[in-house]
């Protein structure tokens, strides 16, 4: 007791000479107080020393000293070095933060329930350890800053945050940080937060998930500015509840064993609609509002409860791809680059020919109680650049897909480029409906480029569909308006031959022309056989502009540029093919076509150079003239 009293007296005398920082070391943790507070220490009963409301058991104090260290209020500095870690806590928050250190493993409990001195607490991590971790408990928001940390925990998570409040995970500018968890633990992720997780900063964060997910939150996740590299995960790269929002920055996900990004609803909270400020939102939405997102996923399918489970690049109840640059490369069998929507599926029917009418192979499939949504771009026509490469194949009757939506799909804008290579691997599939209102979109697929159980509408934008193994555009709605040409442009062709078509809706009279857009199709004819009946009824009721079906063979050759022009030679549209196509059923409708007028298709080998829009073989606004006659048609 006399010793500690003498030490305190000596410290007070020292402070009188130079005002610095008073360091109190207790349990391997250093608490740093403004040195002038030493004169206000309360030494009670010979057992307790209190400084700025932080009470220390005298027997636990191993050292007290004064130095010139500059301390930032509201900060906790955690430095890792090999198999050890040191913790320094700013004096103004010492009463609210308890820390323990076991080798390189740090556990912290945060007790405040409001800002301290007008701000939240920031935990700053730096250094390197091959056997360390951070576990954080609390009941109030805080920031965890990664300031140049390389950390591996061989037996658990690198960072576990049991605080259910909003956590900012900040990556300090110009630092590189790498976190790896152990392969033998029971942790949910390399980085796990029970509460809301906001990732931000201008540094780089690399994550390896060796047991389950790489990054997981029990609430929402947002990403802004930082460079995030998910380099491996046994399960999902990123997993969260309520919603995921990428605002900006760069995210790369690879080496995962399941989904790249997976968003679930929070079952314990009431489901909400999407909201502008996302306050209390629980919509199950995956938002991409900016930045660059790259997902490379080669995960193999698994069997769960007797059903095939293929990996997804991105999976959520709702997709809102508003802006940014998104690239998804999938190579796993039965995988889907994007999967959204939900509902109740029932299948019935089928026959010996292996097709079952509107539901497709094996019987008629219907979805009821459908929830979710897929939107791409914004109503002003802006949107993301979305690139999908799907090289996976069918596995045990589950096909690989580009985009599979149980819900309705609405595409407002942006650019889309989707490639698939195997039977059953459609580019864009919806079990409800597809409405393209703007943007530019290209599909090169072995199976259907665009397929829907419901209606497919080209109300705006420019869409080119090239299938080399099935229909280019296929609607199974079985009703008027199954395929609608509004004010959009659609060029759809297949090189497969009979019975695959450019526009397939089981009866050509189901096609509607409701605007002044352009529709060009080329392909085989179901009338040529195949056991599925004939594409009949080559009359479109109430067409807003002229059109023509051509059922005689037109032989299209790759490398030629075909122009549809009126009798005066005015160019309505020029188009070319990525593969030679023998068309037995073609639709022509274009802006300015008038019933009873004659139009000519001619080709040349010179590419148009003055088109206002040139998109994957489609040239709009050009003055290009063909030189060799292909067909002459009279509009209905």
Structure description:
With 636 residues, this protein is an all-beta fold. The protein has a 29-stranded mixed sheet that branches. Strand 28 (302-304) and strand 29 form a beta hairpin. The protein is elongated. The chain starts with a helix and ends with a strand. The model is unreliable at 350-362 and 528-535 (pLDDT under 50).
Assembly classification: single chain
* N-to-C span: 106 Å
CA-based gyration radius: 32 Å
Structural class: mainly beta
Q: What shape does the CA trace take? A: elongated
Indicate the proportion of strand residues.
over 45%
Could you give a quick summary of the protein structure above?
With 636 residues, the chain is mostly beta strands. The protein is built from 1 helix and 59 strands. A hairpin with a 3-residue loop joins strand 3 (42-44) and strand 4.
Characteristic key phrases:
single chain, 636 residues, mainly beta, 29-stranded mixed beta sheet, 1 helix
């Amino acid at each position: 007791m006399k010793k500690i009293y003498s030490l305190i007296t000596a410290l007070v005398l020292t402070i009188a000479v130079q005002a610095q920082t008073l360091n109190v070391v207790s349990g391997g943790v250093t608490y740093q107080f403004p040195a002038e507070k030493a004169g206000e220490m309360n030494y009670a009963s010979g057992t307790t020393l209190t400084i700025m409301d932080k009470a220390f058991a005298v027997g636990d104090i191993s050292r007290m000293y004064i130095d010139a260290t500059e301390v930032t209020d509201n900060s906790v500095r955690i430095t890792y070095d090999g198999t050890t870690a040191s913790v320094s806590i700013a004096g103004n928050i010492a009463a609210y933060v308890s820390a323990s250190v076991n080798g390189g493993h740090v556990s912290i409990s945060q007790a405040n329930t409001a800002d301290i001195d007008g701000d939240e607490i920031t935990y700053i991590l730096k250094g390197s350890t091959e056997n360390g971790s951070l576990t954080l408990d609390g009941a109030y928001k805080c920031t965890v800053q990664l300031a140049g940390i390389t950390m591996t925990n061989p037996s658990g998570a690198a960072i576990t945050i049991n605080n259910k409040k909003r956590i900012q995970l900040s990556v300090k500018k110009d630092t590189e940080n790498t976190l790896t968890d152990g392969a033998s633990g029971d942790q949910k992720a390399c980085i796990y937060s029970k509460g809301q997780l906001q990732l931000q900063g201008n540094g780089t964060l690399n994550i390896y998930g060796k047991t389950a997910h790489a990054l997981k939150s029990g609430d929402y996740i947002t990403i802004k500015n930082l460079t995030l590299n998910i380099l491996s995960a046994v399960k999902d790269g990123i997993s969260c509840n309520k919603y995921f929002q990428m605002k900006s920055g760069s995210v790369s996900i690879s080496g995962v064993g399941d989904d790249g990004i997976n968003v679930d609803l929070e079952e314990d909270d009431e489901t909400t609609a999407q909201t502008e400020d996302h306050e209390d939102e629980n919509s199950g939405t995956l938002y991409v509002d900016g930045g660059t997102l790259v997902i490379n996923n080669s995960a193999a399918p698994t069997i769960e409860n007797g059903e095939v489970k293929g990996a997804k690049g991105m999976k959520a109840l709702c997709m809102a791809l508003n802006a940014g640059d998104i690239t998804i490369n999938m190579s796993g069998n039965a995988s889907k680059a994007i999967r959204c929507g939900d509902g109740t599926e029932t299948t019935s029917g089928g026959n010996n020919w292996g097709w079952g009418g509107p539901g497709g192979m094996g019987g008629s499939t219907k979805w009821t109680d459908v929830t979710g949504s897929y939107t791409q771009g914004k109503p002003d026509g802006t949107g993301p650049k979305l690139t999908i490469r799907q090289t996976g194949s069918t596995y045990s009757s589950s096909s690989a897909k580009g985009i599979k939506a149980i819900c309705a799909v609405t595409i407002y804008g942006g650019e889309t480029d989707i490639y698939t290579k195997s039977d059953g691997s459609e580019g864009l599939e919806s079990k409800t409906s597809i409405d393209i209102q703007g943007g530019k979109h290209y599909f090169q697929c072995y199976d259907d480029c665009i397929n829907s159980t419901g209606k497919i509408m080209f109300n705006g934008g420019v869409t080119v569909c090239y299938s080399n193994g099935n229909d280019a555009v296929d609607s199974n709605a079985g009703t008027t308006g199954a395929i609608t040409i509004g004010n959009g442009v659609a060029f759809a062709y297949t090189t497969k031959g009979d019975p695959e078509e450019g526009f397939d809706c089981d009866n050509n009279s189901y096609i509607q022309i409701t605007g002044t857009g352009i529709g060009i199709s080329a392909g085989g004819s179901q009338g040529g056989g195949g056991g599925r009946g004939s594409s009949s009824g080559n009359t479109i009721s109430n067409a807003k502009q002229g059109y023509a079906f051509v059922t005689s063979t037109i032989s299209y050759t790759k490398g030629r540029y075909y122009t549809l022009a009126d009798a005066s030679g005015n160019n309505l549209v020029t188009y070319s093919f990525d593969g030679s196509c023998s068309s037995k059923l073609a639709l022509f409708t274009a802006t300015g076509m008038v019933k009873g007028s004659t139009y000519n298709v001619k080709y040349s080998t010179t590419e148009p150079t003055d088109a206002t829009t040139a998109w994957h073989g489609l040239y709009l606004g050009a003055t290009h003239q063909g030189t060799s006659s292909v067909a002459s048609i009279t509009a209905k």
